[in-house]
Write a structure and sequence with these properties.
The protein has about 240 residues and is α+β, with helices and mostly antiparallel strands. It has two domains: about 160 residues, NADH Oxidase (3-Layer(aba) Sandwich), CATH 3.40.109.10; about 45 residues, no CATH class. The chain is about 45% helix and about 10% strand. It has eleven helices and four strands. A four-stranded antiparallel β-sheet has the order 1-2-4-3, with helices on both faces. Helix 2 packs across helix 6 and helix 3 runs antiparallel to helix 7. The chain is globular, with a radius of gyration of 20 Å.
C-alpha cells in the first residue's frame, strides 16, 4: 500500500556496492517526471553522476564522501531555467526568470520531482537519502558538472540497495501540522514538549548511534545561527536576482 510505504521512509547512508543500470535509472526518472509542475514549466534537470572522479570530488565538496562514492546512483537535483530559455527563444521571445517567483517555482518543481523519484526508488526496494550538503559549494559543484546560467543544484539524492536498516523517526503529530480554518500556535505549548519526549525515547532506543537529544534542542542548535550565507549571491550570479 502506497501510504504504508510512505510512512516507512528512513534515510539510508550506507549502501551495497551494486550500481543502478541505465534502464533502472531511466525508469525511476521517467516515473518522477509525472509529479505536478507549476504552469507545466518542468523547471528541473537531473545530473546523474557516474564518473568515479567526479563522484569523489562531489563527495568532497558536499562533505558527504561516503554516500557520494558508495551509493548505487548519485543524482544532482537542479533547478533549471536554461532549457526554458531555449524553448522561449524558439518562439522569438526573451525569457524573464530573475524574479523571486521564478525561484520559488523552480525549487518547488525540483522538490516534487525529487520526492516522486524517492518514492519510486523505495517502491523498488531501494533506499535513498537527500544531500543538502551540495549547497555548501554550489558554484564549484556547478563547474564540476557544467551547469550553465539558470541552473543550480538544490540538493543531491543518493539511491541504492541498503546496507543498513534504520528505524523510522517519529514525525510531529498530525495535530501539530494540521490547522482548521485558523492557524493555532497555542497548541504548541503542549504538543512540542510531548513530541520532545517521543524523540528522546526514539534516540535512546536505537540499536546504533544512540544519543540524548530532543527535537527542540536540535532545532535550537541548528536555527540559532545563519547557514550558507553566500547562497543569495551565488543565485544572483546564476541569474536569480530576486526582483
Amino acid at each position: 500500500m502506497v501510504i504504508e510505504l510512505m510512512k516507512s521512509h528512513a534515510s539510508v547512508r550506507d549502501y551495497k556496492e551494486k550500481q543502478l543500470t541505465r534502464e533502472e535509472v531511466e525508469e525511476l526518472i521517467g516515473a518522477a517526471q509525472y509529479a505536478a509542475t507549476s504552469h507545466f514549466v518542468q523547471a528541473y534537470s537531473v545530473v546523474w553522476v557516474t564518473d568515479p572522479e567526479k563522484r569523489r570530488k562531489l563527495g568532497e565538496l558536499s562533505k558527504n564522501p561516503k554516500q557520494m562514492e558508495g551509493a548505487g546512483a548519485v543524482f544532482l537535483m537542479c533547478a533549471d531555467y536554461n532549457r526554458l530559455k531555449h524553448a522561449v527563444e524558439m518562439q522569438g521571445e526573451s525569457i524573464v526568470f530573475d524574479q523571486a517567483e521564478n525561484l520559488l517555482v523552480a525549487v518547488t518543481d525540483v522538490g516534487l520531482l525529487a520526492q516522486n523519484l524517492a518514492l519510486a526508488a523505495e517502491s523498488k526496494g531501494y533506499g535513498i537519502c537527500y544531500i543538502g550538503g551540495v549547497r555548501n559549494n554550489m558554484e564549484a559543484i556547478s563547474e564540476l558538472v557544467g551547469l550553465p546560467e539558470g541552473v543550480f543544484p538544490v540538493y543531491g539524492l543518493t539511491v541504492g540497495i541498503p546496507n543498513e536498516s534504520n528505524g523510522v523517526k517519529p514525525r510531529l503529530p498530525v495535530e501539530a501540522i494540521l490547522h482548521e480554518n485558523d492557524y493555532d500556535e497555542k497548541k504548541y505549548e503542549t504538543i512540542l514538549p510531548e513530541y520532545d519526549k517521543s524523540i528522546e525515547e526514539y534516540y535512546g532506543s536505537r540499536g546504533s548511534n544512540q544519543k540524548t537529544a530532543t527535537w527542540s534542542q536540535q532545532m535550537a542548535n541548528f536555527l540559532n545561527k545563519p547557514h550558507r550565507p553566500d547562497i543569495k549571491e551565488v543565485l544572483a550570479r546564476k541569474g536569480y536576482s530576486f526582483k
